[in-house]
Write a structure and sequence with these properties.
GO molecular function (chain B): 4 iron, 4 sulfur cluster binding; metal ion binding; nitrogenase activity
Largest sheet of chain A: 6 strands, mixed
Strand content of chain A: 5-15%
Radius of gyration of chain B: 40 Å
CATH topology of the largest domain in chain B: TIM Barrel
Distance between the termini of chain B: 62 Å
Strand order of the largest sheet of chain B: 23-22-19-18-17-15-24-25
Distance between the termini of chain A: 61 Å
CATH architecture of the domain at 53-175 in chain A: 3-Layer(aba) Sandwich
Number of strands of chain A: 14
Pfam families (chain B): Nitro_FeMo-Co, Oxidored_nitro, Radical_SAM
Cofactor (chain B): [4Fe-4S] cluster
Shape of chain B: elongated
CATH class of the domain at 53-175 in chain A: Alpha Beta
Protein name (chain B): FeMo cofactor biosynthesis protein NifB
Strand content of chain B: 15-25%
Oligomer: heterodimer
Shape of chain A: globular
InterPro entries (chain B): Aldolase_TIM, ChlB/BchB/BchZ, Di-Nase_FeMo-co_biosynth, DiNase_FeMo-co_biosyn_sf, Elp3/MiaA/NifB-like_rSAM, MoaA_NifB_PqqE_Fe-S-bd_CS, Nase/OxRdtase_comp1, Nase_comp1_CS
């Protein structure tokens, strides 16, 4: 039953074969479950889609915090490459709130700074920032050379805090740490937990309040989620970190419930907030109409208030009525088509649910930088062995803070879980897939090409690096990182946008014009003069 | 040059450059069957692939040695060797470019050594050409990285030195479309060229379902090897590079070479074609002559549009150089020329032409800079008033902010499709580029000329009557927008404070009013007091010299409402002359309940109330005394009255649609911790903004010795209060006779306006000084015997001028000297030394006699002070 997998692995040399075979699994759903190896080093020279630790820390987690200045400490390249590339949308929440998301700040280190150290330049650069922009919070993100030349960014951050009375966090998120962006997420989470969360005292005013964790507001996804939640009556205290702000993140520990979107990049904070402040977390998925409705219902169950449940159902019904006609049309165009999806952390799972709304199946799915729990569910965490690379990333432990209690007892939580409320847990992507489908960890260009050839999906969702190669091969590809400047795709209205974009991609005229007339028309018949 | 934009020293904000490996990877993409690997963290390869793919809309594959933390400690050679092996087995390249990164260079990797041992360990790979390239991100930008790779390629490849007929062509970074242009030119002249690099197909490929991942177009190894035997090298870049390929081939293999700028614009394309003609021995083909003719025709046709352009050009040095030269030819004035990379030669190369054009257009200021970031570029664009931008798509943020058109060229183009197809080379590429610039300028005119014409020729004239009247709400919004004290964005608008209100009904602990003081700038100070008529004249003459004057305010030097007649007259007089100007008034609020309605009727739209506390006890400590309805109050009673009246008054103002700003003077130890309470209260009343100020310890005031709150503490208070409601951060503590914009007070320069325009009525005569008994400072309202102070006025040439105040106590020599017997009257008289007359509401018979004896004329009257002085003087 693993024909395609064997075909794929056949092409590798024995050494690469040995490494890659455990990262590629064709689902069987047998007694032993489908295991996969993940979060290990990428093989050099195989063109991996992975980025680095700095990309995870600066590019993903702290970059979208709009009222904070993020300084890239290092030579200029990384600052340029991480400038505005994730399309995190942000706008000031009130008049006069600063928005630094469109900026890129860098110490622009030169050869002499590498020799003599860059701490002084960094500190003086921060003086310039304070004079020009006076932010409330500064994140310093280190790139490769910093750890090697011995600049102490944490010490600089402490001095800045003292000098200006603001919050400053020095991140040692050098590109070579860990095995992918994932290390950067973890490092970023630790800093936010240590220096930001819990600093505020402004309690939410609403009856039920939530944080949305792991939502980066690509293409405005976070705004659609907030719209729905507010319509029901929830107060959204903070969003980690799309369109987020230091001013709101610091109050996040006072919310009633954490909603986790991207499990990979933010589960550390979800877990630590549960331990320290007793805030439960719920794995939600607002990508897909069915998934969104299910998530909203789990939330209502969690709060267990008939009024809230009634309102939740009303909103779901209203929203469905609004999009029903469009959804039916796009479904008629898309039903029965297949898709492949290779993205970073959680989208490969989330988008399968949305595709299913349109009657599409995802036969190939993979993550860039996920861990085993993202594939197989958090139950496997005790089985995951720490290796040299993961040991290098600091684990911080927190204790219950005074004055914070759990909302529910252990028994009550168990009972809620038994009712289908996915509290403080995540079941992983694989359980939502089907037998025979292929799951690939840390996919590379070679495997992408091979799998497309074998599975022939109608559409392949991936990123800009793969997009043009896939399209040269005759399969349409849409970017799941930036949505090709479209979006939002989340929630109810987003689903319609997605349906429209996918339909338009599959039915665009160009595909029917690939073959020129001279390939199909019969050759002219006749003889050359003189030959007869 | 007059203006100066100062770049930051330690920070790059919004970079206009990338790092070396980006340029190196681009250069290697011009070779056939070549793959590249970056020795370092995998993020470098990922980032560069992502950016190149977005620009070229093509797949870009760059491998990585994926160094980890362990590699940084033990060296990365194993990773690099593994990477090379996997790359070879999966892609079978003929050439591999091995580029370094910040990480590899910082840990000191010996890449040539590693490659050597890799080949030794792996027999069978000898045929693969491995090219090591030094490209640490901290040693330069992508521009340097690009040339470093070209140099690495020619110096690593073993050349065949046998002479051949080929011509080497080394190009600065150009688009695939422009590369195709060059190839067309060479074929027109019958020249067999070896392009280094040749990006024409690998980064702009045709749709082909049998797509091959290995770049299979571009310059092949066989051609590269022949470069050493070529008959000529043409290097197309305006700059001399330290690792020039032309120079290297000339020195090493004796290949003659010539360096020319990129063929952009008329002169440089002419020079390029001329050189091709020389090399090939062929005449310039007719089709190119026609292209030249068409370009020239376009230059002439478009010159009037071009001449309206003030351009900002930014990007890689060659792009800036060539674009600027072409613009100068066409008559577009480049006012900002900025290279992101270091380029010390740039200025010297382009300044002469820019300076010539600037002379023709009478443009004084322009700027040429290298190592610029987009923060610098934006500042320069504003300073030198550019109206069109040309460069990479990273200029889009500025274009959006400043509403300027951006013509995209160079690398990267991330927000538009087709970066790989943009053209600028040759007559045809140049004409496309210049047409785009002209069309953007035309579009700007097209969308704005109606407004410009209207503003220039019609606005405010008799035919400008059709406009819909503004609604009350719109008027209010506009006025607030144009009021420099209510909107910190309104700093281009000016205001005038008319000092018509000398009297005050409270004595604030921090206040000393000064009436003839040009040297201090703070509330309560003025050079002179004006009558309503003088105030009108002053307004009219200032308005003539300052068209941006939008606001007339009355801010003392005393309390406006305590001088109500004057204030009302001023507003009425000015309104008759100018129906639109904004009226603004500042008050301590004590009499606000009495006058709020009248303020509304007079058309006062903005009122500032100074309210330092909402707690009577705290409020009371701010005043030595207050006077209300003929009685004096101190302490808590004063505070209670103040707070009650202030709040009632503010309520009335807001109910009448008047915008209220509340000033809070912070005094350490009295109200500094109470300020947020005040802000909360006024917020709930519906005030617009609060202005929390420091108390300025003025010499002679009751709080003279209280240390002012520090700027830091003040800002903390403001920040804290900002969460409650908007705060004013730009208060300038204006004088009562301030004129101009907030940052440029002209009160001293403009104070002569009134005097200048008044004819001298009589020849210079002796001036007379009068002492006036008055409490209000406006009306002669005090009995001689009750006077505690006198207002001194000088009369000279028909003019009455305020000359200061004298307190009776001050002139009393104390009991020892004056003796207990000396009565009160004697003490008062002692204060009148040097006066020609004294004017009071009532002067008793006895004192009048004594005064007359001393040569001081007593005058009994109840009148406005000035009128009384005039009459008294004329009677003498």
């Amino acid at each position: 039953m693993s024909k395609e997998r064997d075909l794929l692995l056949d092409k590798y040399s024995s050494r690469v074969f040995k490494n890659r075979k455990s990262h590629i699994t064709q689902l069987e759903f047998g007694e032993n479950g489908d295991e996969i190896t993940a979060n290990t080093r990428a093989i050099p020279g195989i063109i991996t889609a992975r980025g680095c630790c700095y990309a995870g820390c600066k590019g993903v987690v702290v970059g979208p915090v709009k009222d904070s200045v993020v300084i890239t400490h290092g030579p200029i390249g990384c600052a340029f490459y991480s400038w505005g590339t994730r399309r995190n949308k942000a706008k000031p929440s009130y008049e006069g709130e600063p928005n630094f998301v469109p900026y890129s700040f860098c110490t622009d280190m030169r050869a002499s700074d590498i020799v003599f150290g860059g701490e002084k330049k960094l500190e003086e650069g921060i003086d310039e920032i304070m004079e020009l922009f006076h932010p409330k919070c500064i994140f310093i993100c280190s790139t490769c050379p910093i750890g090697l030349i011995g600049d102490d960014v944490q010490a600089v951050a402490r001095r800045v805090e003292e000098k200006y009375g603001i919050t400053a966090i020095g991140y040692s998120c050098e590109g070579y740490k860990g095995v992918s962006q994932s290390a950067g997420h973890h490092i970023a989470n630790n800093g936010l937990m240590r220096y930001v969360i819990g600093k505020g005292e402004e309690a939410p005013k609403g009856k039920y309040s939530v944080n949305i964790l792991g939502e980066y507001n690509i293409g405005g996804d976070g705004w659609e989620q907030e719209r729905i939640l507010k319509k029901i009556g929830y107060e959204v205290v903070s969003v980690f970190t799309g369109d987020g702000s230091y001013e709101t993140l610091k109050n996040s520990h006072l919310a009633d419930l954490n909603l986790v979107m991207c499990h990979r990049s933010i589960n550390y904070i979800a877990e630590m907030m549960k331990t320290k402040y007793g805030v439960d977390w719920l794995k939600v998925n607002f990508i897909g109409v069915g998934a969104t409705s299910k998530s909203l219902r789990m939330m209502a169950k969690y709060f267990n208030d008939p009024e809230l449940t009634k309102r939740t159902e009303e909103v779901i019904a209203e929203e469905l009525a609004e999009i029903n006609e469009d959804m039916e049309y796009y479904k008629s165009k898309l039903k029965g088509k297949t898709a492949g999806i290779f993205v970073g952390g959680s989208r490969s799972h989330h988008y399968q649910m949305l595709l299913r709304d349109f009657g599409m199946e995802t036969t190939i799915a993979g993550y860039e930088f996920a861990h085993r729990d993202d594939y197989e569910g958090r139950d496997v965490i005790p089985q995951i062995k720490a290796d040299a690379d993961s040991k290098n990333i600091e684990e911080i432990s927190v204790e219950r803070a005074v004055g914070y209690d759990d909302r529910y007892s252990v028994e009550e939580l168990t009972s809620l879980r038994n009712q289908g409320v996915e509290l403080d847990t995540y079941n992983g992507m694989i359980k939502d897939m089907k037998e025979g489908y292929m799951v690939v960890d840390d996919y590379n260009m070679f495997e992408t090409d091979q799998l497309i050839e074998e599975y022939k999906p109608d559409i392949f969702f991936s990123g800009i690096k793969d997009k043009y190669a896939i399209q040269h091969g005759g399969v349409v590809s849409r970017q799941m990182h930036s949505y090709d400047y479209s979006g939002p795709y989340a929630g109810f209205r987003g689903a319609v946008n997605f349906g429209r974009d996918v339909t338009m991609s599959l039915y665009t005229n160009a595909w029917s014009l690939v073959k020129p007339p001279w390939k199909t028309m019969p050759m002219l018949e006749g003889t050359l003069g003189g030959a007869g | 040059m007059k203006s100066e934009v100062k770049p930051l020293v330690n920070l790059n904000i919004n970079p206009c450059k990338m790092c070396m490996p980006m340029g190196s990877a681009t250069a290697f993409y011009g070779l056939k069957n070549c793959m590249t690997i970056l020795h370092g963290s995998q993020g470098c390869a990922t980032y560069i692939r992502r950016h190149m793919a977005t620009h070229y809309n093509e797949p870009v594959d760059i491998a990585s040695s994926s160094l980890t933390e362990q590699g940084t400690v033990y060296g990365g050679s194993e990773n690099l060797k593994k990477g090379l092996k996997n790359l070879i087995e999966l892609y079978h390249p003929e050439i591999i470019g091995v580029m370094t990164t910040c990480l590899a260079e910082t840990i000191g990797e010996d890449v040539p050594g590693i490659l050597q041992s890799f080949l030794e360990e792996n027999p069978g790979y000898e045929d693969i050409t491995l090219i090591p390239c030094h490209s640490p991100g901290y040693s330069g930008s992508q521009y340097e990285g690009y040339f470093a790779a070209l140099s690495a390629i020619v110096s690593s490849i073993k050349m065949e030195t046998e002479k051949n007929h080929l011509v080497n062509v080394i190009t600065a970074p150009i688009s695939p479309a422009d590369t195709r242009y060059l190839k067309r030119m060479f074929s027109l002249f019958g020249i067999d060229a070896v392009l280094l690099p040749d990006l024409s197909d690998n980064l702009d490929g045709a749709h082909d379902p049998s797509y091959n991942r290995l770049p299979h177009e571009g310059t092949d190894l066989a051609q590269l090897k022949q470069m050493g035997g070529a008959r000529f090298t043409l290097e197309l870049t305006a700059f001399h590079h330290k690792n020039s390929v032309g120079e290297y081939l000339s020195e090493t293999y004796g290949v003659p070479y010539e360096r020319l700028p990129l063929p952009v614009g008329l002169r440089d394309t002419d020079a390029f074609l001329n050189t091709l003609s020389h090399i090939s021995g062929k005449e310039i083909p007719d089709e190119l002559k026609k292209e030249r003719g068409r370009y020239l025709d376009a230059m002439i046709d478009s010159h009037k549009y071009h001449s309206s352009g003030r351009a900002a050009v930014f990007g890689e040095p060659d792009l800036v150089y060539s674009t600027v030269r072409m613009m100068c030819e066409c008559g577009v004035m480049p006012v900002v020329c900025a290279a992101g990379s270091a380029s010390p030669e740039l200025d010297g190369l382009i300044r002469p032409e820019i300076s010539d054009l600037a002379g023709l257009y009478l443009v004084d200021e322009y700027k040429i800079a290298d190592k610029a970031d987009f923060k610098d570029i934006e500042e320069m664009i504003v300073t030198y008033k550019a109206n069109i931008l040309a460069g990479s798509s990273d200029g889009r943020r500025i274009a959006e902010d400043l509403h300027l058109p951006l013509v995209r060229r160079g690398f990267p183009i991330h927000d538009h499709v087709g970066g790989q197809r943009l053209k600028m080379l040759g007559y045809e590429g140049s004409v496309e580029y210049m047409d785009e610039i002209a069309n953007q300028l035309i579009d700007t005119v097209e969308t704005t000329f109606r407004e410009t014409l209207y503003d220039t020729y019609y606005k405010g004239t008799a035919i400008d009557q059709k406009k819909e009247p503004e609604s009350a709400e719109e008027i209010m919004k506009r006025k607030t927008k144009e009021h420099p004290c209510y909107n910190c964005q309104a700093h281009q608008f000016a205001r005038i404070h008319l000092p018509v209100a000398p009297a005050c009904n409270v004595q604030c602990g921090y206040c000393v009013r000064k009436f003839d003081c040009p040297n201090e700038s703070r509330p309560g100070v003025t050079s002179s007091i004006l009558t309503p008529e003088e105030a009108l004249n002053r307004y009219l003459s200032v308005k003539e010299k300052m068209p941006n004057l939008t606001v007339v305010g009355i801010a003392g030097p005393g309390e406006a409402l305590e001088n109500w007649e004057n204030v009302r007259n001023v507003f009425e007089l000015i309104r008759k002359q100018d129906p639109n100007v904004t009226f603004c008034l500042s008050t301590n609020g004590l009499k606000l309940p009495q006058y709020a309605l009248e303020l509304k009727e007079l058309g006062v739209s903005h009122v500032t109330v100074t309210m330092n506390a909402v707690d009577p006890h705290i409020s009371g400590q701010m005043y030595q005394y207050i006077r209300y309805m003929g009685r004096e109050y101190t302490g808590d009673a004063a505070g209670a009255l103040m707070v009650a009246n202030q709040i009632a008054g503010i309520r009335q103002l807001i109910a009448n649609g008047i915008l209220v700003k509340v000033n809070i003077v912070t005094v350490k130890g009295i109200n500094d911790s109470h300020v947020p309470e005040v802000v909360k209260t006024v917020k709930s009343l519906g005030c617009f903004i609060t202005n929390i100020m420091q108390m300025i310890p003025v010499k002679g005031s009751a709080l003279e010795h209280v240390e002012p709150v520090s700027n830091k503490q003040l800002n903390e208070i403001r920040k804290q209060c900002e969460e409650i409601m908007p705060q004013m951060y730009h208060c300038q503590h204006c004088r009562a006779d301030a004129v101009g914009t907030l940052t440029d007070d002209k009160s001293i320069q403009l104070k002569g306006f009134v005097a200048e325009e008044r004819p001298v009525l009589v020849p210079v005569s002796k001036s007379l000084r009068f002492a006036v008994a008055s409490k209000s400072g406006v009306v002669v309202d005090t009995h001689f015997g009750h006077a505690k102070e006198f207002y001194l006025y000088d009369y000279r040439n028909g003019e009455v001028r305020f000359a200061g105040k004298r307190s009776v106590e001050q002139y009393c020599q104390g009991e020892e000297e004056c003796g207990e017997k000396e009565d009160k009257i004697e003490r008062i008289i002692a204060a009148l030394n040097g006066c020609s007359g004294v004017i009071a509401m009532r002067i008793g018979m006895e004192p009048a006699k004594k005064l007359t004896k001393l040569g001081i004329k007593p005058v009994n009257t109840y009148d406005m002070i000035e009128d009384a002085v005039k009459k008294a003087a004329e009677a003498m």
